[in-house]
Amino acid sequence: MTDKEDAHYTIGEAAEILQVSTRTLRHWDEIGLLTPSWRSWGDHRLYSEADVERGMNILIYRGAGVALKDIAMLIDASAASRTDILRHQRTVLVDKVGHMQELIEAVDALLAAETHAKGRTMSTEDKIELFGENWPAYQEEARQRWGDTEDYKVNQEKIARMSPEDIQAAKQNSEDFKVDLGNAHAAGIAPGTEKAQEIVDKHLATISPYMPLSRSKQVILARMYVADDRFAEAYGDNCQYLLDLVEAQASAEGIDLANVQWE
Fold first, then answer.
1. What InterPro entries does the entry give (predicted)?
2. How many CB atoms lie within 10 A of CB 246?
Protein backbone atom coordinates (compact mmCIF):
# COMPACT_ATOMS: atom_id res chain seq x y z
CA MET A 1 0.00 0.00 0.00
CA THR A 2 1.27 3.46 -0.82
CA ASP A 3 -1.63 5.46 0.55
CA LYS A 4 -1.06 6.92 4.01
CA GLU A 5 -4.78 7.39 4.61
CA ASP A 6 -5.06 4.90 7.52
CA ALA A 7 -1.43 4.97 8.68
CA HIS A 8 -0.75 6.87 11.86
CA TYR A 9 2.82 6.35 13.05
CA THR A 10 6.29 6.53 11.60
CA ILE A 11 8.77 3.94 12.78
CA GLY A 12 10.19 6.45 15.25
CA GLU A 13 6.76 7.26 16.67
CA ALA A 14 5.83 3.58 16.95
CA ALA A 15 9.14 2.82 18.67
CA GLU A 16 8.48 5.59 21.20
CA ILE A 17 4.98 4.29 21.97
CA LEU A 18 6.21 0.72 22.41
CA GLN A 19 9.37 1.79 24.26
CA VAL A 20 11.62 -0.19 21.94
CA SER A 21 14.30 0.87 19.49
CA THR A 22 13.70 1.42 15.78
CA ARG A 23 16.27 -1.33 15.25
CA THR A 24 13.98 -3.73 17.13
CA LEU A 25 11.03 -2.82 14.94
CA ARG A 26 13.11 -3.36 11.80
CA HIS A 27 14.15 -6.78 13.12
CA TRP A 28 10.55 -7.72 13.86
CA ASP A 29 9.66 -6.71 10.32
CA GLU A 30 12.50 -8.76 8.85
CA ILE A 31 11.40 -11.94 10.66
CA GLY A 32 7.74 -11.36 9.83
CA LEU A 33 6.68 -10.77 13.42
CA LEU A 34 5.43 -7.21 12.99
CA THR A 35 5.20 -5.97 9.43
CA PRO A 36 3.81 -2.42 9.12
CA SER A 37 0.57 -2.21 7.16
CA TRP A 38 1.71 0.76 5.12
CA ARG A 39 4.68 2.22 3.31
CA SER A 40 5.17 5.82 2.36
CA TRP A 41 5.99 6.90 -1.20
CA GLY A 42 9.60 6.95 -0.02
CA ASP A 43 9.21 3.33 1.19
CA HIS A 44 9.34 4.30 4.86
CA ARG A 45 7.49 2.07 7.33
CA LEU A 46 4.15 3.41 8.57
CA TYR A 47 2.32 1.71 11.45
CA SER A 48 -1.44 1.60 11.94
CA GLU A 49 -3.24 1.40 15.29
CA ALA A 50 -3.64 -2.34 14.75
CA ASP A 51 0.11 -2.68 14.13
CA VAL A 52 0.91 -0.87 17.38
CA GLU A 53 -1.58 -3.07 19.26
CA ARG A 54 0.12 -6.16 17.83
CA GLY A 55 3.45 -4.72 18.98
CA MET A 56 2.09 -4.38 22.50
CA ASN A 57 0.98 -8.02 22.45
CA ILE A 58 4.44 -9.01 21.28
CA LEU A 59 5.96 -7.21 24.26
CA ILE A 60 3.55 -8.92 26.65
CA TYR A 61 4.47 -12.36 25.38
CA ARG A 62 8.16 -11.52 25.26
CA GLY A 63 7.92 -10.35 28.88
CA ALA A 64 6.37 -13.72 29.72
CA GLY A 65 9.48 -15.40 28.38
CA VAL A 66 8.04 -16.59 25.07
CA ALA A 67 10.67 -16.81 22.33
CA LEU A 68 10.23 -14.42 19.39
CA LYS A 69 10.00 -17.33 16.98
CA ASP A 70 6.91 -18.59 18.85
CA ILE A 71 5.17 -15.26 19.40
CA ALA A 72 3.80 -14.89 15.86
CA MET A 73 2.22 -18.33 16.05
CA LEU A 74 0.81 -17.49 19.48
CA ILE A 75 -0.73 -14.19 18.41
CA ASP A 76 -2.25 -15.68 15.28
CA ALA A 77 -3.45 -18.89 16.95
CA SER A 78 -6.99 -19.66 18.05
CA ALA A 79 -8.01 -18.92 21.63
CA ALA A 80 -7.81 -22.62 22.55
CA SER A 81 -4.33 -22.96 21.12
CA ARG A 82 -3.17 -19.83 22.92
CA THR A 83 -4.44 -21.25 26.21
CA ASP A 84 -2.46 -24.46 25.72
CA ILE A 85 0.68 -22.57 24.75
CA LEU A 86 0.40 -20.18 27.70
CA ARG A 87 -0.14 -23.03 30.15
CA HIS A 88 3.01 -24.64 28.85
CA GLN A 89 4.85 -21.34 29.15
CA ARG A 90 3.67 -20.98 32.74
CA THR A 91 5.12 -24.39 33.57
CA VAL A 92 8.41 -23.36 32.01
CA LEU A 93 8.47 -20.13 34.03
CA VAL A 94 7.66 -21.91 37.29
CA ASP A 95 10.59 -24.24 36.66
CA LYS A 96 12.82 -21.24 35.98
CA VAL A 97 11.69 -19.54 39.19
CA GLY A 98 12.55 -22.67 41.15
CA HIS A 99 15.96 -22.81 39.53
CA MET A 100 16.57 -19.13 40.22
CA GLN A 101 15.63 -19.62 43.87
CA GLU A 102 18.19 -22.40 44.10
CA LEU A 103 20.80 -20.09 42.58
CA ILE A 104 19.90 -17.32 45.04
CA GLU A 105 20.29 -19.72 47.97
CA ALA A 106 23.64 -20.85 46.60
CA VAL A 107 24.83 -17.25 46.31
CA ASP A 108 23.59 -16.52 49.85
CA ALA A 109 25.60 -19.48 51.12
CA LEU A 110 28.71 -18.21 49.32
CA LEU A 111 28.20 -14.72 50.74
CA ALA A 112 27.87 -16.11 54.24
CA ALA A 113 31.05 -18.11 53.77
CA GLU A 114 32.87 -15.04 52.45
CA THR A 115 31.68 -12.96 55.39
CA HIS A 116 33.02 -15.45 57.90
CA ALA A 117 36.19 -16.03 55.89
CA LYS A 118 36.97 -12.33 56.10
CA GLY A 119 36.62 -12.48 59.87
CA ARG A 120 33.66 -10.18 60.37
CA THR A 121 34.28 -7.95 63.38
CA MET A 122 31.52 -7.21 65.88
CA SER A 123 31.02 -3.52 66.54
CA THR A 124 31.18 -2.09 70.05
CA GLU A 125 27.40 -1.61 69.85
CA ASP A 126 26.98 -5.32 69.01
CA LYS A 127 29.01 -6.33 72.04
CA ILE A 128 27.22 -4.00 74.43
CA GLU A 129 23.92 -5.35 73.12
CA LEU A 130 25.05 -8.91 73.83
CA PHE A 131 27.13 -8.53 77.00
CA GLY A 132 25.55 -5.49 78.68
CA GLU A 133 26.41 -1.82 79.09
CA ASN A 134 29.35 -2.60 81.40
CA TRP A 135 31.06 -4.66 78.73
CA PRO A 136 33.82 -2.09 77.90
CA ALA A 137 34.98 -2.04 81.55
CA TYR A 138 34.86 -5.84 81.80
CA GLN A 139 36.76 -6.15 78.53
CA GLU A 140 39.57 -3.91 79.74
CA GLU A 141 39.81 -5.77 83.05
CA ALA A 142 39.90 -9.12 81.23
CA ARG A 143 42.64 -7.86 78.92
CA GLN A 144 44.77 -6.76 81.87
CA ARG A 145 44.26 -9.98 83.85
CA TRP A 146 44.30 -12.61 81.09
CA GLY A 147 45.47 -10.84 77.94
CA ASP A 148 48.54 -13.08 77.62
CA THR A 149 46.62 -16.36 77.92
CA GLU A 150 45.56 -18.65 75.09
CA ASP A 151 41.94 -18.69 76.33
CA TYR A 152 41.75 -14.91 76.06
CA LYS A 153 43.00 -15.02 72.48
CA VAL A 154 40.49 -17.74 71.58
CA ASN A 155 37.73 -15.75 73.26
CA GLN A 156 38.52 -12.62 71.24
CA GLU A 157 38.67 -14.56 67.97
CA LYS A 158 35.34 -16.27 68.62
CA ILE A 159 33.58 -13.03 69.49
CA ALA A 160 35.05 -11.20 66.50
CA ARG A 161 33.73 -13.82 64.08
CA MET A 162 30.18 -13.93 65.41
CA SER A 163 27.49 -12.95 62.91
CA PRO A 164 24.40 -10.92 63.87
CA GLU A 165 22.48 -14.19 63.95
CA ASP A 166 25.10 -15.74 66.24
CA ILE A 167 24.88 -12.71 68.52
CA GLN A 168 21.12 -12.94 68.78
CA ALA A 169 21.20 -16.71 69.37
CA ALA A 170 23.82 -16.37 72.11
CA LYS A 171 21.85 -13.62 73.80
CA GLN A 172 18.67 -15.69 73.67
CA ASN A 173 20.48 -18.73 75.10
CA SER A 174 21.74 -16.62 78.01
CA GLU A 175 18.26 -15.26 78.69
CA ASP A 176 16.76 -18.75 78.53
CA PHE A 177 19.36 -20.04 80.98
CA LYS A 178 18.59 -17.28 83.50
CA VAL A 179 14.93 -18.31 83.41
CA ASP A 180 15.79 -22.02 83.77
CA LEU A 181 18.14 -21.30 86.68
CA GLY A 182 15.55 -19.21 88.49
CA ASN A 183 12.85 -21.83 87.94
CA ALA A 184 15.12 -24.61 89.23
CA HIS A 185 15.95 -22.59 92.35
CA ALA A 186 12.28 -21.84 92.98
CA ALA A 187 11.39 -25.51 92.48
CA GLY A 188 14.02 -26.60 95.01
CA ILE A 189 16.12 -28.66 92.60
CA ALA A 190 18.88 -30.02 94.83
CA PRO A 191 22.59 -30.01 93.88
CA GLY A 192 23.87 -33.36 92.66
CA THR A 193 20.58 -34.49 91.13
CA GLU A 194 19.93 -35.30 87.49
CA LYS A 195 17.90 -32.12 87.05
CA ALA A 196 20.72 -30.12 88.63
CA GLN A 197 23.20 -31.58 86.13
CA GLU A 198 20.97 -30.42 83.27
CA ILE A 199 21.14 -26.87 84.64
CA VAL A 200 24.92 -27.07 85.05
CA ASP A 201 25.34 -28.35 81.49
CA LYS A 202 23.09 -25.57 80.15
CA HIS A 203 25.30 -23.01 81.88
CA LEU A 204 28.34 -24.58 80.27
CA ALA A 205 26.64 -24.34 76.87
CA THR A 206 25.95 -20.60 77.29
CA ILE A 207 29.66 -19.91 77.88
CA SER A 208 31.18 -22.33 75.37
CA PRO A 209 30.52 -20.12 72.30
CA TYR A 210 33.05 -17.65 73.73
CA MET A 211 35.83 -19.93 74.99
CA PRO A 212 36.79 -23.58 75.52
CA LEU A 213 35.26 -24.37 78.92
CA SER A 214 35.96 -27.41 81.09
CA ARG A 215 34.16 -28.33 84.30
CA SER A 216 37.12 -27.02 86.33
CA LYS A 217 36.96 -23.68 84.57
CA GLN A 218 33.22 -23.62 85.14
CA VAL A 219 33.78 -23.97 88.91
CA ILE A 220 36.19 -21.04 88.90
CA LEU A 221 33.75 -18.90 86.91
CA ALA A 222 30.86 -19.79 89.23
CA ARG A 223 32.98 -18.83 92.24
CA MET A 224 33.80 -15.54 90.57
CA TYR A 225 30.08 -14.87 90.10
CA VAL A 226 29.62 -15.07 93.88
CA ALA A 227 32.76 -13.07 94.71
CA ASP A 228 32.06 -10.25 92.26
CA ASP A 229 28.85 -8.29 92.88
CA ARG A 230 28.81 -7.16 89.26
CA PHE A 231 27.58 -10.59 88.20
CA ALA A 232 24.39 -10.04 90.17
CA GLU A 233 23.25 -8.26 86.99
CA ALA A 234 23.30 -11.58 85.20
CA TYR A 235 22.08 -14.09 87.77
CA GLY A 236 20.61 -11.99 90.58
CA ASP A 237 20.01 -13.95 93.78
CA ASN A 238 20.83 -17.21 92.01
CA CYS A 239 24.64 -16.81 91.89
CA GLN A 240 25.24 -18.84 95.05
CA TYR A 241 22.71 -21.45 93.98
CA LEU A 242 24.48 -21.84 90.62
CA LEU A 243 27.81 -22.26 92.42
CA ASP A 244 26.32 -24.97 94.63
CA LEU A 245 25.05 -26.83 91.56
CA VAL A 246 28.34 -26.52 89.67
CA GLU A 247 30.51 -27.59 92.62
CA ALA A 248 28.30 -30.60 93.34
CA GLN A 249 28.53 -31.74 89.71
CA ALA A 250 32.29 -31.13 89.58
CA SER A 251 32.79 -33.13 92.77
CA ALA A 252 30.70 -35.97 91.35
CA GLU A 253 33.04 -36.00 88.34
CA GLY A 254 36.12 -36.35 90.57
CA ILE A 255 37.33 -32.75 90.70
CA ASP A 256 39.07 -31.74 93.95
CA LEU A 257 37.17 -28.60 94.97
CA ALA A 258 40.01 -27.59 97.32
CA ASN A 259 42.47 -27.50 94.45
CA VAL A 260 40.62 -26.45 91.31
CA GLN A 261 42.87 -25.44 88.40
CA TRP A 262 42.10 -23.39 85.29
CA GLU A 263 42.61 -26.23 82.87
1. DNA-bd_dom_put_sf (IPR009061), MerR-type_HTH_dom (IPR000551), MerR_fam (IPR047057), TipA-like_antibiotic-bd (IPR036244), TipAS_dom (IPR012925)
2. 25
